[in-house]
Amino acid sequence: MLIIIGISIDNCYAQYDPVQGCNVDSNRDCLPNTILGALPFLRIVPDAHGGGLGDAGITTDNGANALHFNGSKLPFVTKESGMSFTYTPWLRNLGLTDVYMAYLSGYAKLDDLQSVGLAIRFFSLGDINFTNVLGDPEGTGKPRETEIVLGYARKLSPNLSAGLSGKWMISNLASGRTVDGIEISSATSLAADLSITYNNDINLGLYDGRIRIGGAITNIGSKVTYTNNTTRDFIPTNFGLGTTLELDFDEFNKMAFSFDINKLMIPTPISSLLVDENGDASSNPDYDSDDDGVADYRQKSLFSGILGSWGDAPGGFSEEIKEINYSLGIEYWYDNQFAVRLGYYYEHPLKGDRQFLTVGAGLKYNVFGFDISYLVPTNNTRNPLDNTLRFSLLFDFAVFSSDL
What we know:
- By secondary structure, the protein is mostly beta strands.
- The protein has helices at 2-6, 48-51, 66-69, 302-308, 317-322; strands spanning 15-17, 22-24, 81-89, 99-109, 114-125, 128-131, 137-141, 144-157, 160-172, 178-179, 182-183, 187-204, 207-221, 238-248, 253-264, 273-275, 281-283, 324-334, 338-346, 355-365, 368-377, 389-395.
- The protein is 6% helix and 47% strand.
- The longest helix has 7 residues, at 302-308.
């Protein structure tokens, strides 16, 4: 039952060293202190466009897939409507063929000021063979996770827009099974996204272009549990800021440069033990102040956890900065028909250590568009998308409009 246990692991056995500002092992070397939460699939970039740009997408021009990153971009999309379908293989390096993510999304402009969007995400974890603690078989299961998002965005001025999305999520990992007398159920949550985008035309010397600046707080939603336990886990509420600069070199050639930063807005785990300069350990009074056997950071309310996430890291400001992830993407288009993309993603070694390069390409022809991306790890940390291709198929409904 590792799937269930994995979302609730805390640092109850780690030792925190105030001098070094990190959890340490017996040699007093710093250990990772990764932020943990439920429903992590909500933070997986679902489309091949963003996947080719180092997971950047808060201000990129990605139309039908905007809802995942920043729904407020939709009023600035030039087409009246569009749709996208993405298929992402998962853990192919392990030889698994039945684990994948499918993402269907689309949008429509109601008028010059308003747009709506819809997205459905389905994550299949394949067929799982369940065992007990002795390794004896206990049947099979088909873990599945689903997200449905409905978004609305409106221009507040010619250059500024805001968006609001509502979403429903369900995670069915082992429903109906019993572990140590505890019945496992599905975890469900309702959440919202808030976003804003500034978009303006600019001139840089010989070249015309555009600049976009945007921000989004996503997955602001109820905590979840897979059992009747009163202690619930945070879902991955995220704060993101991004900017994109587009330059038109001539009527055939243009480039875009995008940069995103993201930070999870859920509590940072703390350890139950403190270690002094002599290596002696003592109890951490901030770990479980009410002695109920559950870490205090896990018992925070939704908004207490979100607001406190900006200053709750045991290592102070320096550790908070380590919790920021960075995405950099570069995109080149020729004749608005063929694109190549390059990206880089960085996460601090003590906060997950995901670091990778991405490459991608795009093709538009009449009704259809096609995006592809490929991830190349740059360190020894395994990534579920290592050396994996993902594909997005786009459909442009504007070709059927009467103005064409």
